[in-house]
Specification:
The chain is an all-alpha fold and about 170 residues long. It contains 8 helices and no strands. The chain is globular, with a radius of gyration of 15 Å.
Length: about 170
């Protein structure tokens, strides 16, 4: 959700408002979908990504709070272009046969989640490298995004990013 919401919202508001707003919306959507499809979750595949992301989130929050808005938006634009370019040009080049790569992709996802509420690109690339089936990919990714969305929402609150503007726009 953040991959779509952040680029749409960020040009019209401060990134410090757009980020927690996108995290709140992603959490809500994940809950609604997983209530219907909880039985398809592959818990064994997702726990490493969640733990690793929790390690990266504080670094992303530090980045969000310390980098100027325009520089932060420029970095975000570069990340989205790199992800889009990879996804369009070479999604099947690498194949991971084990879950060991989840640690790296999870930390990067945590950093992007903390900074931009955008943990999706590294996790999606990881899922492509693992060559999960479409149904396994959907439910496993959602089972990752729900707890990460909850952690991000809490982290943004704890980091002082829940402002009256964020709560008004979310409500």
């Amino acid at each position: 959700m953040g991959l779509i919401a952040i680029p749409i919202i960020a040009p019209f508001t401060d990134i410090r408002i757009a980020t927690p707003l996108a995290a709140m919306a992603a959490m809500t959507v994940s809950i609604l979908i997983l209530l219907k499809q909880w039985h398809e979750i592959n818990f064994q595949s997702v726990w490493r990504l969640i733990v690793a992301s929790c390690i990266g989130i504080p670094f992303g929050l530090f980045f969000l709070k310390s980098i100027q808005g325009n520089l932060s938006k420029l970095i975000l634009a570069v990340i989205i272009m790199l992800f889009s370019g990879y996804y369009l040009l070479s999604p099947g080049i690498i194949r991971l046969k084990t879950d060991r790569g989840a640690w790296f992709f999870g930390v990067v996802a945590g950093i992007l989640g903390g900074a931009y509420a955008l943990p999706a690109p590294p996790v999606m690339i990881y899922s492509l490298f693992r060559r999960w089936s479409p149904s396994s990919m959907r439910t496993t990714l959602l089972s990752y995004f729900l707890p990460i969305s909850l952690i991000l929402v809490f982290s943004h609150w704890a980091g002082g990013l829940w402002t009256p503007s964020v709560l008004l726009l979310f409500g």
